[in-house]
Write a structure and sequence with these properties.
By secondary structure, this protein is mostly beta strands. Helix content is about 5%, strand content about 35%.
Length: about 170
């Protein structure tokens, strides 16, 4: 409930569309695009978030809060219950492109003064690896589930690769 009411969190998580019940409160920045009635008479509304971020952002790690507040009445401690709104004014640098393939994400950005952390709004798993054109980079979990990559000076691109180990029984 808290997430669909938070413009800043929806933007940072790159959530472009929200499907809600007709009378359900949603973030003020969402634009109604479609309405339908189910066979049981329930009215649904599809909203579009025109301000959705590209799916990643840069931030100065020294300005990153150690933790973020939870949305009220959220029953778990997972990322979708985390109010990311406080990170919005801390974003620093522009992501210029994100290209997705089957198991890779290639990101580029404008140079920003170090140190910087690249936060990718994909679910962190230990099987993610990162490589810049010249070296490997560390992949860490930030805020309980997002991908974080501490950047070294001069880095302006990263390729993330998801390669889980096969389980042999």
């Amino acid at each position: 409930e808290g997430l669909v009411r938070s413009d800043a969190s929806l933007d940072l998580l790159a959530i472009r569309y929200v499907l809600a019940f007709r009378d359900e409160p949603v973030a003020a920045g969402l634009r109604r695009t479609w309405t339908a009635t189910t066979v049981r008479g329930v009215q649904l509304v599809l909203y579009e978030n025109d301000d959705a971020a590209p799916g990643a952002f840069l931030i100065d790690p020294a300005r990153m809060p150690a933790s973020l507040p939870r949305f009220p009445a959220c029953e778990n401690d997972r990322i979708l219950c985390t109010d990311l709104g406080g990170l919005a004014p801390l974003r620093d640098g522009d992501i210029t492109s994100i290209d997705y393939s089957a198991n890779e994400i290639h990101l580029t950005w404008t140079a920003a003064p170090p140190p910087r952390m690249l936060i990718v709004t994909e679910m962190y798993r230990a099987a993610w690896t990162a490589r810049s054109p010249s070296e490997h980079a560390e992949v860490v979990s930030v805020y309980g589930g997002l991908i974080g990559i501490p950047l070294r000076p001069g880095m302006t691109s990263i390729t993330l690769r998801y390669a889980p180990r096969a389980i042999i029984t």
